[in-house]
Amino acid sequence: MCAIHFLDYLHNLINVLHNQFNYDIFIIKTKKKARLNMSITSKIKGLLQVKNIEHAKLAENLNLSRQSLSNKFFRGSFSAADLIKIATFCKCELAFIDKNFKIILDTNDINESSEKGQ
């Protein structure tokens, strides 16, 4: 995704969060970059809204009941495996990014022990 498309995507996400969920987005200015101060729950809900994905479809994909997914949203308790599955389901990448490298996490990075919560 080029920088211009990402900025358009980010702008749309901020508008959706503000208009649909009444979230206020705070930009924290640092010497290097501006950072969004949002919880993981807000980010996932915003992503689902932008991608037009219903919570029920995500719950089904994660093999969770709607109530279990709702509990995860309420607590903000998403495991690394959950985040990888959500990113894959939303056709996004979950990555560690540094100025010199980018490590993309995908479903191959989920092992059996993380699946069972161990």
Task: Tell me about this structure.
By secondary structure, this protein is mainly alpha-helical. The protein has a single domain (3-115), classed as Orthogonal Bundle (434 Repressor (Amino-terminal Domain)), CATH 1.10.260. It has helices spanning 3-21, 40-50, 55-61, 66-75, 80-89, 112-115, and strands at residues 27-29, 34-36, 94-97, 102-105. The strands form two sheets. Strands 1-2 form a two-stranded antiparallel ribbon. It has a two-stranded antiparallel ribbon with strand order 3-4. α1 packs across α2. The protein is globular.
List the helices and strands and how they pair.
Elements (H helix, E strand, L loop, with lengths): L2 H19 L5 E3 L4 E3 L3 H11 L4 H7 L4 H10 L4 H10 L4 E4 L4 E4 L6 H4 L3
Antiparallel strand pairs: 1-2, 3-4
Kindly list the characteristics that best describe this protein.
118 residues, 434 Repressor (Amino-terminal Domain), two-stranded antiparallel ribbon, two-stranded antiparallel sheet, 6 helices, 52% helix, globular
CATH architecture: Orthogonal Bundle
Mean pLDDT over the full residue set? 77
Count of beta strands: 4
Based on CA atoms alone, the radius of gyration comes out at 15 Å
State the name of the first-level CATH class: Mainly Alpha
Q: Examine the coordinates and then state which fold CATH places here, giving the name of the CATH topology.
A: 434 Repressor (Amino-terminal Domain)
Low-confidence stretches: 26-31
Largest sheet: 2 strands, antiparallel
H/E series: HEEHHHHEEH
Total count of domains: 1
- Portion of residues in beta strands equals 5-15%
Describe the oligomeric state of these chains in a short phrase.
single chain
Main structural class: mainly alpha
Helix content: 40-55%
- Cα-to-Cα separation, first versus last residue: 35 Å
How many helical elements? Answer: 6
Strand order of the largest sheet: 1-2
What is the overall silhouette? globular
